[in-house]
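Design a sequence for this backbone.
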């Protein structure tokens, strides 16, 4: 089933899905199917709702601003990592956050928490917060559609490091740390969840590391080179995927 549907257009539908059901497709996705993918009524596509597995579907209607499909079959498959990896990304320039969300989703992150830290250069005013979070959620969904994810990563915005929620083994990237990645990776086989905290441009400050320590984070150095803030989480996600 996974191979059979791999070449089809793939979209996320936030709805309960069942074989034989007729499902409406929102206007923005209808536009994508019609004008970008050049699909027509009767064409097949793959849909998923982020609640496990994916579905085959046939387009039953395709107008300028609306589309619908009929669910034809279900595949109980998962393309998720065997452990949940949660990313704490401290806020920096907006486009860098978007890079982390896109690449992190493609690489299997279970969720993202965007947090304000001591050296953060990017803050969301209350009046603009929801629209920006909606944009970020759309980036996550599009990355999940493209990469074949069967789950949609969660997204939270935290106004301080004190508000973040670590899960499982908690690691904070720090180029001055004594604990090396090579000493940590072999312990991941017995772990169900990992939380990775990545600082903004300029890294974590002393107050940040103290706050993270209170929350149970262990300082970790990934390698001899210092990565840009938007590179760190995707690099670690790839490294984790290679050993679990």
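Sequence:
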């Amino acid at each position: 089933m996974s191979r059979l549907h791999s070449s089809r257009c793939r979209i996320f539908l936030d709805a309960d899905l069942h074989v034989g059901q007729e499902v409406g497709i929102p206007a923005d996705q209808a536009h994508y199917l019609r004008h970008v993918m050049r699909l027509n009524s009767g064409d097949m596509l793959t849909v998923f709702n982020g609640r496990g597995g994916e579905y085959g579907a046939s387009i039953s209607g395709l107008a300028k601003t609306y589309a619908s499909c009929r669910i034809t079959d279900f595949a109980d498959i998962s393309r998720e990592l065997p452990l949940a990896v949660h990313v704490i990304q401290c806020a920096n320039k907006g486009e860098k956050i978007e890079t982390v969300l896109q690449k992190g989703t493609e690489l299997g992150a279970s969720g993202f928490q965007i947090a304000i830290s001591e050296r953060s250069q990017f803050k969301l005013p209350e009046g603009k917060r929801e629209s920006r979070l909606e944009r970020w959620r759309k980036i996550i969904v599009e990355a999940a559609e493209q990469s074949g994810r069967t789950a949609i990563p969660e997204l939270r915005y935290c106004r301080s490091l004190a508000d973040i929620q670590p899960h499982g083994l908690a690691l904070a990237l720090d180029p001055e740390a004594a604990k090396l990645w090579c000493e940590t990776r072999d312990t991941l086989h017995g772990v169900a969840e990992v939380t990775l905290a990545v600082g903004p441009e300029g890294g974590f400050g002393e107050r940040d590391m103290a706050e993270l320590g209170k929350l149970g984070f262990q300082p970790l150095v990934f390698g001899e080179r210092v990565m840009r803030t938007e590179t760190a989480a995707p690099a670690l996600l790839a490294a984790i995927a290679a050993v679990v």
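Residues 10-75 form a domain with the Ribosomal Protein L25; Chain P fold (CATH 2.40.240.20).
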